[in-house]
Automatic annotation (TrEMBL):
Keyword check for Lyase: yes
PANTHER family (UniProt xref): 2-DEHYDRO-3-DEOXY-6-PHOSPHOGALACTONATE ALDOLASE-RELATED (PTHR30246:SF1), 2-KETO-3-DEOXY-6-PHOSPHOGLUCONATE ALDOLASE (PTHR30246)
UniProt-listed InterPro entries: Aldlse_KDPG_KHG, Aldolase_TIM
UniProt xrefs under Pfam families: Aldolase
Pathways involved: Carbohydrate acid metabolism
Recorded superkingdom: Bacteria
UniProt-listed Enzyme Commission number(s): 4.1.2.21
GO molecular function: 2-dehydro-3-deoxy-6-phosphogalactonate aldolase activity
SUPFAM superfamilies: Aldolase (SSF51569)
Family affiliation: Belongs to the KHG/KDPG aldolase family.
Known partners and oligomeric status: Homotrimer.
Keywords attached to this entry: Carbohydrate metabolism, Lyase
Protein name: 2-dehydro-3-deoxy-6-phosphogalactonate aldolase
């Protein structure tokens, strides 16, 4: 299992922070309608495991359902039981990468420095989340990619929107994680679909 085919299809991870189980299927349908197939539910969302279960049940192999803000090995086990196929962390934790890989999860851990990136790759990370991207820049990403192993997939997360997504993609990002610029609690499916379409159009300029 790899993240690459999903990123090739659409290099946007939809971060659904704050989403509730009763709305995940409608929001997921809206996102898939615009080609966004990577759906991440952060674990600090209300009843996140139930949202992950519902996404997995509704979309199966049509979406890569992930769990974000994973910080413990117990959470790794719980998200696997809920049906997640992708683990995203906010921080550098090689042990969590090892735990995720041992359970068959795609691992996309967070990092900010070259040292963290190399430690996570050594642990078997499939991709790397550059976080918080607001504190970096596309130029920083280009510098990181110059020293990381060829083909390393780096996904900036934080402060990404239609206004700057093309700059990150041009700098070499394999994908981007988009949260509040795509979904905020209370958004209707139609609003989310419209924002997803704007992101896809902005990426087309890259």
């Amino acid at each position: 299992m790899s993240m690459a085919p999903w990123l090739d299809a659409c290099p946007i991870v939809a971060i659904l922070r704050g989403i509730r189980p009763e709305e995940v299927e409608a929001i997921g349908t809206a996102l898939l309608a615009e080609g966004l197939g990577i759906l991440e539910v952060p674990l600090n969302s209300p009843n996140a495991l139930e949202s992950i279960r519902r996404l997995h049940a509704a979309f199966g192999d049509r979406a890569l359902v992930g769990a974000g803000t994973v910080t413990t090995e117990d959470e790794v086990a719980a998200v696997v039981r809920a049906g997640a196929k992708l683990m995203v962390t906010p921080h550098c934790s090689p042990p969590l990468v090892l735990a995720a890989r041992a359970r068959g999860l795609i691992a996309c851990p967070g990092f900010f420095t070259p040292g963290e990136a190399f430690a996570l790759l050594a642990a078997g990370a499939d991709a790397l989340k550059l976080f918080p991207a607001e504190a970096a820049s596309p130029a920083v990403l280009r510098a990181l990619l110059a020293v990381l192993p060829t083909g390393t997939a780096v996904l900036p997360v934080g402060g990404i929107g239609a206004e700057n997504v093309a700059a990150w993609k041009t700098a070499g990002a394999a994908g981007v994680g988009v949260g509040s610029s795509l979904y905020r609690p209370g958004d209707t499916p139609a609003a989310v679909q419209q924002k997803a379409r704007a992101l896809r159009e902005a990426l087309g300029a890259a």
